[in-house]
């Protein structure tokens, strides 16, 4: 990547949406601009876990403003990441469809562990290099992430469904601060976070860091009251809760360092932070400068550097974990990508890389059942924690894995996406051509696209030399019937 290249990250959090624009300079990203809007999407989930119309409108309006600022950024230089509220929302597809349009870029909904990994990257990149063992705590609006790591490597990540917005709604719904409400909120938070004790016990880390909204807000208030800059102490938390109890309600809280938009969720945030301090025996926490958005920026950078894309390592790990036949998987991947690249439009390198991943994973479901391995493989990809991948990316890989065999018309896929259709066809043909589990003879084999029709041609004598392969290709022509697409094979 060239020095001076601008990169942008959009963080669609449960409480706030944030836009970070940075400039790449000699391996580091320097901040150019930072925008934040308090959207409170986490407050907009109804009893059925659907986002209300008002909450969606607030989000769309913010994304439209961010989109105007990002106009002209190449897609490869922008990453938008959505977290817990959109993980939970049953109608998230409706929000995301319009959100992508008004922002102008795809929006990745990431899993809790992936969110934790990105948070750690953001925190670690803005800290001095050190061999210290780090505990990173990020209390968001509807989830809390805990990470153990050293330098740039996270060793353990976890995400829990407890956060400042959710706990403020549940235990301080009318904004009233009472000892009973704080006690109930803290006990409930400990009940959710209790399983963290086994992994994040005090002897596993040297320094605790707090990132994002709650930690930053508490650090600001304590510093304004005369405490050390950027340090949260247990005594400070006791003092702060006492101040909230004296105020009796959120709308009466007046403290130096506390921003107006934070008052409505400070009760829930303090309760969760106190629970973390008590459970993990934290006595002092440093307020970190980095957070999810910086992690997304550096992850974007890593994806553009040859050999550093974490997703490739994750695919390798999944192959090992599920006992994939490595040699055969690579054979299918090579064949699929060779076919795809013949018919793909210019600039399809990323789609080719994702096809390669799907091909290498096409047999992960065999660990469950050989006969239905394509369905089991799709299920695994839809329900696994895969570092580096967003949930929609894993779903798309799962669609390819499921679609490797059977009637195409029965698949619930987007037939209006020609690149995806070509990926699917290339994988299906590769699986068929590699049926004997040895390298197929593809000399003279060509694939091209003409509108809604694909043409597959072979050299003279190919079908006679490989009658089983020719038979499978003819069956593939039939599999595409009653779809918007057609496969025509000219077998010589």
What does this structure look like?
The chain has 492 residues and is an alpha/beta fold. Helices cover 46% and strands 17% of the residues. It has 19 helices and 14 strands. Strands 8-7-6-9-11-10 form a 6-stranded mixed β-sheet, with helices on both faces. It has a 5-stranded mixed β-sheet with strand order 3-2-1-4-5, with helices on both faces. It starts with 5 loop residues before the first strand and ends with a strand. The model has no long low-confidence stretch (mean pLDDT 95).
Short description:
The protein is of the alpha/beta class and 492 residues long.
Note the overall shape.
Answer: elongated
Proportion of residues in β-strands = 15-25%
- Termini separation comes to 46 Å
Query: Gyration radius, to the nearest Å?
Result: 26 Å
Give the helix/strand class: alpha/beta
In DSSP terms (H or I, runs of 4 or more residues), the helix count works out at 19
The low-confidence runs, each spanning 5 or more residues with pLDDT under 50, are: none
The average pLDDT score comes to: 95
Order of strands across the widest beta sheet? 8-7-6-9-11-10
How would a crystallographer describe the biggest sheet?
6 strands, mixed
**Which percent range fits the helix content?**
40-55%
Total number of beta strands? 14
């Amino acid at each position: 990547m060239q020095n001076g290249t601008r990169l942008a990250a959009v963080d669609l959090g449960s409480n706030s949406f944030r836009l970070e624009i940075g400039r790449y300079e000699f391996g580091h990203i320097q901040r150019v601009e930072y925008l934040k809007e308090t959207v409170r999407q986490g407050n907009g989930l109804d009893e059925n876990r659907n986002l209300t119309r008002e909450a969606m409108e607030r989000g769309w309006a913010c994304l439209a403003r961010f989109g105007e600022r990002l106009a002209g950024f190449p897609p490869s230089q922008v990453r938008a990441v959505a977290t817990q509220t959109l993980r939970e929302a049953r109608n998230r597809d409706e929000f995301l469809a319009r959100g992508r349009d008004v922002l102008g870029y795809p929006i990745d909904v990431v899993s809790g562990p992936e969110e934790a990994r990105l948070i750690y990257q953001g925190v670690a990149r803005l800290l001095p290099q050190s061999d210290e063992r780090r505990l990173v705590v990020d209390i968001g609006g509807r989830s809390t992430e805990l990470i153990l790591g050293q330098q740039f490597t996270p060793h353990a990540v976890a995400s829990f469904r407890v956060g400042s917005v959710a706990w403020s709604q549940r235990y301080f719904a009318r904004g009233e601060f009472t000892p009973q409400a704080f006690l109930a909120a803290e006990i409930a938070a400990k009940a959710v976070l209790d399983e963290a004790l086994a992994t994040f016990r005090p002897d596993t880390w040297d320094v605790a860091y707090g990132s994002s909204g709650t930690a930053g807000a508490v650090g600001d208030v304590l510093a304004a009251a005369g405490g050390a800059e950027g340090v949260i102490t247990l005594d400070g938390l006791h003092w702060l809760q006492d101040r909230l109890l004296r105020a009796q309600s959120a709308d009466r809280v007046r403290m130096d360092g506390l921003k107006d938009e934070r008052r409505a969720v400070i009760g829930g945030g303090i309760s969760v932070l106190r629970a973390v301090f008590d459970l993990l025996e934290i006595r002092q926490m440093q307020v970190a400068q980095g957070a999810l958005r910086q992690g997304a920026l550096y992850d974007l950078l890593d994806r553009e550097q040859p050999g550093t894309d974490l997703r490739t390592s994750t695919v390798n790990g999944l192959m090992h974990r599920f006992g994939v036949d490595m040699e055969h998987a690579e054979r299918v991947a090579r064949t699929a990508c060779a076919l795809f690249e013949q018919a793909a439009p210019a600039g399809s390198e990323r789609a080719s890389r994702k096809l390669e991943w799907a091909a290498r994973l096409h047999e992960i479901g065999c660990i469950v059942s050989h006969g239905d391995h394509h369905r089991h493989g799709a299920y695994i990809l839809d329900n696994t924690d895969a570092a580096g991948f967003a949930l929609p990316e894993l779903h798309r890989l799962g669609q390819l894995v499921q679609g490797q065999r059977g009637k195409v018309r029965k698949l619930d896929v987007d037939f209006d996406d020609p690149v995806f259709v070509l990926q699917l066809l290339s994988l299906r043909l590769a699986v068929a051509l590699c049926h004997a589990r040895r390298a197929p003879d593809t000399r003279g084999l060509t694939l091209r696209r003409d509108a809604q029709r694909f043409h597959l041609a072979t050299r003279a004598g190919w079908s006679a030399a490989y009658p089983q392969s020719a038979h499978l290709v003819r069956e593939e022509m039939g599999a595409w019937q009653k779809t918007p697409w057609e496969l025509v094979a000219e077998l010589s």
